[in-house]
Amino acid sequence: MKKLNYYATVMLLSFGIQSNAQQNDALSFNGTADYVQVMNADQLNIINNLTAEAWVQLDKVNGVNIVFSKAWCGISQAAYTMSIADGKLRWSWNANGNCNFSSYIETNNIVFQVGECHHLAVVHTNTNVLLYVDGVSVPYTIMQGSYSNIMQSTEPLRIGIYRGLSGSFMYYMDGKIDELKFWDAVRTPQQISYSMNNALAGNESNLVAYYDFENLVAGSFITIPNKATATGSTLDAVSSSTSPLIETSCAILNNLQVEENTLIVNNNSVNVYPNPTTGFVTIEFEKAVDNELIQVIDTYGKKIKEFKLSGLQTELDLSDLTKGIYYLNVGNSIGSSVKIIKE
Hints:
Strand 21 and strand 22 (280-298) form a beta hairpin. The longest helix is centred in the first third of the chain and has 10 residues, at 6-15. This protein has two helices and 25 strands. The chain folds into two domains: 6-253, Jelly Rolls; 262-342, Immunoglobulin-like, CATH 2.60.40. The protein has helices spanning 6-15, 189-196; strands spanning 22-30, 36-38, 50-58, 64-70, 80-85, 88-93, 103-107, 117-124, 129-133, 136-138, 140-144, 157-159, 162-163, 169-170, 174-183, 207-211, 223-224, 237-239, 245-253, 262-265, 268-273, 280-298, 303-317, 324-330, 337-342. With 343 residues, it is mainly β. The strands form four sheets. The protein has a nine-stranded antiparallel beta sheet, with no helix packed on it. Strands 1, 3, 8, 9, 10, 15, 16 and 19 form an eight-stranded antiparallel beta sheet that branches. Strands 20, 21, 22, 23, 24 and 25 form a six-stranded antiparallel beta sheet that branches.
């Protein structure tokens, strides 16, 4: 099921092009035994200004499906949990780890029906919480407690499972999870809308953990790499002995085919160098082109520059761009791009 937010749709239409976004992989949890775990690390103890997001598709709506949880009431280490309870998105947190004093909120309306795919996000501060479904902020009710910081828990981050008071696991996820991201910052609605439909480079500011579930090999205790470069392998995840299956994701990402320095457009190889760059980049085509469209897109999906190129090789001046990550779209494809790092 393809999801495109309003802004991205308008952007595609205004450029006069169509997306050739590609299907990607997700972890599929069976609802009875499998889960994924990240050992406790300080980087995941975000007590304030936390943003977390993921694509989720459910095979079972009734009851509780855990998206992720860093909590165990048995030793007063309850920190935060995202779940879907009878189809409603739920976010719970605790300031002191004692579950008798947990706070939690739920969306006013049911979000999920069986088989539906949605992008979920939470933005938590000590004075407010925002819940997003498919890039749109949705109303919720405070079911218990009040706004506060989140405690620093010693518990691992568990994906697709919850550790109950007795220590046993429960509320197994029955469905798929993809593009799980954690940020130690308040992400804006525009940023959430963009990252909803775009794979990340991994070195985005304030990105703490990023699990895209790509290029995995099925088996027991498989390692799931953390693609956030700031934290790297210290936040790699490991599956349970009954590992989740690797299946096609319901999320279709516009830039899944982003390459570092080369790409193929209409059977024409395109090289871009130097990358990173301090100002100028050279675009070199294997075959001569005539009036080829080149667009420079920022990480919010906004078109910054546009060029028309002819011949085999052209130099572009990007010296006026601020430092950061950009995507160079070549031709009539927004789904196949070269990532440019401006230093």
